[in-house]
Every structure is written in structure tokens, then in C-alpha cells.
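Much of what follows relies on a compact textual record of a protein's fold. Here is one such record, which you should read through line by line:
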Amino acid sequence: MLQFKLHQGQKELQRLVRLPDSRVVVAVLGRRWGKTSGSVEVLLRLAKDHPGMRVGWWAHQYAGVRVAWEEVTKRCIGPVVKKRRGDIYLLELVNGWRLEMFSGETADAPLGRGFDLVVIDEGARVPMQVRDEIIWPMLADRDGKLLVLSTPKGKHGRGAWLYRDYKKAQLKVPGYYCMTGPSTDNPLPAMQKAVQFAQANLPAAVFSQEYLAEFLESGNAVLDLVPVCTMGGSPEQPVPLPYEYQLEEGDKPQTVMGLDLAQKTDWMVGTVLDQETGECLAMDRYQLLPWETQVERAASLAARFGANVFVDATGLGGPVVEMLQGRGVSVVPVTFTQDRKQEMVQGLQLAIEKGEIALPYIAEAVAEAECFEAEVLSSGRVRYGSADGFHDDIVTSLGLAVWGRQRCRAPFLVT
């Protein structure tokens, strides 16, 4: 086998896994810390000392399995057995040490197998049900250990079990051990530069979670509307949708409107902001209506407030822009690119932090914001969007309105 040099954090991981009384080892680690490469080396070193050992590797997606498999095979030379059965990979050494790798996309494949050690890669993305109903039984017959590797994803939601197991280890529950390590544990100069760049350019919460490996209350969530819900309503008595502020007679503020278009089962949402004060004057949300009806409803809202409408013109947006213009609406089409969406989201974050906008407490808006997440990609870029199973139509509409307000207050220019 080709030898791989462990950095100090990876040596600590190896120590915890080898402890005779360890049963659950939780390693909470920053991006590019060396989770996969270090863990593979720990397993291969175990192979030398434990002939006949059975090891399982579980990743939430097949792509994660493939990356780990490439790490294993490039270090193993000589007489080894390497097989692939569908989406399951098998490596067997001459001393009987055996490694099987599979993903959550083939959840039934490992049923009935028994292991001395199971590694869960990116555990925060794995539901607790999978851990309890699939992985734990695989360890029972051989009194096996569980090693969980993950970047944290908050204290609540899908990855909450990771946080609870981490806390058990901190509280010295017998059999539980934990460690944490920021991305800077990786000594490569390129990684050190990447962390510096991320710290300078990412939202503080995202950097803390993804690179410093810190558990946050809200996980990947990057928006919190509650501090700016100052125009009435409460969690106990939220303001219902559609919402429309009753202007006094003769009051005609300059306004902007963000319009997010419905796609399939999504919602069409229009949000009107006072251009000067940033107060939310209206929010409308509807779905499953004919396009003509949706456009007419949006045009009517814009007309009542005399708003400049910033509309998501991505995809099907072009024809809708033309329909709105045909009804006399002042429309600014906005085509989303990854950079523009990042700019829009960060502009909304800043407006919230500075208190530059104000809304009533609308439960749907608050809930959407709580489920709007930032994910750091392997390239180091950030992708924003709703968590699986949730919508981001209100967030997009509000973001467009804030983005438009900023441009209407400056010389009017949209590119």
C-alpha cells in the first residue's frame, strides 16, 4: 500500500477510532479538512492490524462513495480484490480485511450485512431514521463501532442527531468520543489561501459553519426576518396573506415590487416596498391559476401602488414580461445567474442586518427564510436556495424588491 502522511487532526481521528472503549466517534470538521483522505488512511492502517475486519462506508449520495473509492484504490497496490456490484464497491485484502461502500441512493443494498466499523460520510445529511434502522443493526452482530464524519448543518432538522451525539461525547457518555477541526487543520498552502478568501467573501455565519466547523442554531439558514417584522402581527397572531397596507388618501409613495414567477407547483409572489422607507406595503401569493389570471393579478397590484416591477425573467419570464408591459406595467426584467443571485441574497441579508426594511409578521415569509440555505460547493462558490421540500418564492420576491429598491435609489441602471 502507498503510505499517506496524516496531519495532526487526522492523527487524532485515528487515535479515537482505535480506542478500545469507543463505540461512537463524531468528527465535526470544516470543508477540505481531509475527511475522506484521512479516514481512508485510518481504515487502511487498521487493515494491517486487524485481519478479517469488516468495514462499511456509507455516503448520502453515490457521488460521495465514488470519491472515497478512488481514494482507496489509488493507495492499494498488489494482490487485492476490487469489485463493483451495481452501486456497491467491494475491496478485499489478502488478510481477509474487507471494505464495502454504498450510498443512501441504494438504501436496501446493505441490509443483512454485519460490520466491525461503519463510517458515515457527511452524517449531517443523513436522516436519523437511516442511522437507527439501517446502520445500527449492521453493527449489532459484531459489536461494531460507528465513525461519523461531517461538516455541521445546525442543531435542528435532519442533522440534529449529529449534534446530540457530539454533545453526548462532550458530556463523557460512555463509548462516545468527539473531535472538531477547522479547515485550517489542512496544512496545504492552497487550503490556507482558500480559507482566507472564504473568510473575506462569505457571510460570517456560513464561514463559521463550513470552515470553522461550528454548530449554528439555524444550520445553513442565512436569513432571519423576525428582527424586521415590526409592522404588526406576531407568531401567535400572524398577518394573513394576501397582505396590503391601507394608504391614507392622497398618499402616493414611490414603490418597487419584486415578482417571482410560479414554476410548476411553486407560488407566484409579488412584494411591494416603499422605496424611501423600505416598509412592506403589500405581499400577494398564489398558485395553480391560469397564466393570464396570474399576470392580471400581478399587474393590478403593481398599478394600485404605482410600482416599478423587478421580475424574475429567467426561463419562462420573457413572455410574462411582455404580458405585463402590454398592461402598462413598468417592468425591469432580471435574469438570474449564480453571481446575481448571490448578490441579491447578500443584499437582502445586509438590508435585514441594518434594519433597512420592515414587514408585518407573516408566518409564511418567516418560515421560508428559516429554510433558505447557503451551500458551499466543492469549487468554493456558494449556492443559495430553499432546503429540500421547501419553497423560496417569498424570499426571491422580497430579494428582488430589495435589489430593485437599491437601484431605484441610485441612478436607475440595471444590467
In short: The longest strand covers residues 268-274.
